[in-house]
Specification:
alpha/beta; Rossmann fold; 2 domains; seven-stranded mixed β-sheet; 7 strands
Length: 264
């Protein structure tokens, strides 16, 4: 896709979906769009956008494709071990020292099909059963949110990191796999555009993993500043294993271990 075509495609996408691709890395997004055009057997983007004016099902399919979903329960298990052993005990202690913070407020930003918020719920139910908590789970992908609210179905690959005991207790016995209804009681799913929408505040933990990596440096800086503002003092931002905040202090954050940043 040349620069002229990409400019026109970005303009059409912004008009149709209010998604601004200027915030995304150009080469990654160009490759993703080129792959989609081949997949849908369209000759040109002009033809495809003409189709979208009359085919609402295809319109929604394309909108959902523009958001990137790679997820599974307890993705990167070693990081979740740190949440269980170090991060959550610290946050619970911090909350109990503040009389206004009886309940842990957690946000899964870019929750995709729900495996991350359900992972958080499993962790809380197993390791901290007496701790009150709420989980806000947000994503731009409406199709992913439908699946998340329905608690699946999930594939064998999605649940591969769960222990046999966890599968028995929290996942349906046979495929297609669904998370148990009990896990959903403290989770609220909501559509959200991280770039344009306002954030709630007062979070103890924000989990945003492997989402920001697709954005430009300028957009990353805006998002990290917004995440910091959404955390309570002492709150923690949990990012992907390959994500490093350069100059975390300018966002009011400090390194709190690999993949974790604490608000000052």
């Amino acid at each position: 896709m040349d620069a002229s075509d990409y400019t026109q495609v970005k303009a059409s996408i912004k008009r149709s979906f209010n998604i601004d691709l200027d915030h995304y890395k150009d080469e990654q997004m160009k490759r993703r769009l080129d792959s989609w055009l081949v997949r849908v057997h369209a000759d040109t983007w002009k033809d495809y956008f003409q189709l979208l004016t009359t085919d609402t099902t295809e319109l929604e399919r394309f909108r959902n494709y523009l958001t990137i979903n790679v997820t599974e329960f307890f993705r990167d298990p070693a990081r979740w071990d740190l949440v269980r052993q170090d991060i959550m005990p610290y946050l619970i202690k911090n909350a109990r020292e503040n009389p206004l913070s009886r309940e842990l407020k957690i946000w899964s930003a870019g929750c995709s099909i729900g495996t991350e918020p359900y992972t958080l719920a499993i962790l809380m139910e197993e390791a901290f059963p007496n701790q009150k908590y709420s989980i806000l789970a947000t994503d731009l992908d409406r199709g992913a949110l439908v699946k998340a609210r329905a608690r699946g179905p999930y594939t064998q690959e999605d649940i591969r990191n769960l222990t046999p005991a966890q599968r028995k207790k929290y996942i349906s016995a046979a495929a297609p796999y669904h998370a148990s209804e009990s896990l959903q009681k403290n989770i609220h799913f909501q559509e959200q555009n991280l770039i344009t929408d306002r954030f709630d505040a007062g979070f103890d933990l924000i989990v945003c993993r492997n989402v920001v990596i697709y954005f430009t440096t300028e957009t990353k800086d805006v998002l990290y500043a917004k995440f910091s503002a959404a955390l309570r003092p002492g709150g923690v931002l949990f990012v992907g294993g390959t994500e490093i905040l350069s100059g975390a202090a300018k966002f009011g954050l400090q390194n709190f271990g690999i993949s974790f940043y604490k608000k000052l």
